[in-house]
Amino acid sequence: MSNPFQSELGRDSKEKTNQASADTQSALGGTAKAATSTVGNTAAGLTNTLGGVVGAATRGLGQTTNSATGGATKPLGDALANIGAGVENAGKDIGEGGKRAGEWKGPSER
Question: Residue span of the signal peptide, if any (predicted)?
Fold first, then answer.
C-alpha cells in the first residue's frame, strides 16, 4: 500500500527546489543588471562628454574661421562647424544608447 504523505512531501520538496532555483536566477540577474548598469552609464557619460567637448571645439573652430577670415573661407568654416555639430550629436546619441543599455532597455524604450 502506498503512503499518501509521500507524494505530498515529494511535491513540497520539488516546489522548494524550483523556488530556490528561481531565487538564484533572480539574484544573478540583479547582480548582472547592477554591474552592466554601472558600466553602461559610466561609458555613456564619458562618450557624451567626449562628444560634447570635441563637437563644441570643432564647431567653435569653424565659427572662428568664419569670423577671422571672412567670406573667402566661409565654406570651410561652415563645414567645420557642421562636422562639430555632427560629432556632438553622435556622441549624445551613442551616450544615450549606452545609458539605455545600462538600464536594460531596448532601442524603442526611451
Answer: none
